[in-house]
Amino acid sequence: MTEAFVQQLGHDPVGVWAAPGRVNLIGEHTDYNDGFVMPFALAEQVVVAAAPREDGRWGVRSLNRRQTVTFGPQDLVPGRVEGWAAYVAGVVWALAEAGHTVQGADLVLTSDVPVGAGLSSSAALECAVLTALVDLSGLEVAPLDRARIARRCENAYVGAPTGLLDQAASTLCEADNALFLDCRSADHRQVPLDLSSVGLELLVLDTKTPHSHVTSEYGDRRRTCDEAAKILGVAALRDVSLDDLDDALSRLPDDVMRRRVRHVVTEDARVLEAVEVADDGRLADLAPLLDASHTSMRDDFEITVPTVDLAVETARAAGAHGARMTGGGFGGCIIALVPVGSADEVGRAVAAAFDEAGYGAPAWFLGVPSAGARRLV
Ligand code: GAF
Fold it and tell me: Which InterPro entries match (predicted)?
């Protein structure tokens, strides 16, 4: 990255920063319901080399897209910068909105986080740029506030109505751990995740079915959850306990809303159980929780698609101990707990099933719990 920066700008960068994509182990569509999530950071990340520039503007070169976008203070208005660069301009905007003075800068960035796969490539971009700009500008911003500012960029500048999950994962995760986050209080802690200790590893398989939060039904799910909370007289669905679920469901007007609520309430309970299981070192017991989460997303929240369901079923038939879709839904990736050394075999089984069904080829890799956003050089 240092060399790439020198090639582009003719001088050395001041530093190099990185922020990862994530998989969410469990806890889907619970974050914006004030609930619980349990993601871990991937080794796949966005890397940014940066140096200050003196004209008070920001120049951003994407090595993946071979494009440079330059913007200035007058562009720090939601909607002014579009496409991939909106995630960069939005971070500058959100930092400024939070009261920080952001140094003009040249940034050169690259990413190996698959895009549109539900692995938070956009949060990785936001958090890498934010980490670089915070350092370059000499700002003091606590880790949780960094996640909140990056989320603000996503919600208000880019216009995607997401929760805190992705930016919190990219910022707060640590190597060898999953993150347990209470999205209401923002309390969080690391949960050791040494899958090899129980002879397992985590396969991440990208179905290559593209998804999009802005154009998908994500906003629709959010609205239904908010409406249900209003009808039930609670601040958020997090306030409905598993014990009260039947009573709550009987007070809702239609079957679709009942199923949406059942997903959120049971998913929160599954996250709490997953944390308990991991704390006890019983990591193999995550498998039934992953399976139940998938069923709930498929039948109650209705956010899976045929490629995703086929990938999950095939992975299980090929020896996975538990499998589920991860991320916002309507495509993207599945994760599967598989015996150490069998990830390729399971991946190949899914590829064969896709071929037979007439779907395009999937891609896969091992999900390794890795470090969150940080300075590399
Ligand atoms: C996307 C969103 F960005 C997250 O906030 C979260 O809601 C997730 O979908 C579903 O769990 O990744």
Answer: Galactokinase, Galactokinase_bac, Galactokinase_CS, GalKase_N, GHMP_kinase_C_dom, GHMP_kinase_C_sf, GHMP_kinase_N_dom, GHMP_knse_ATP-bd_CS
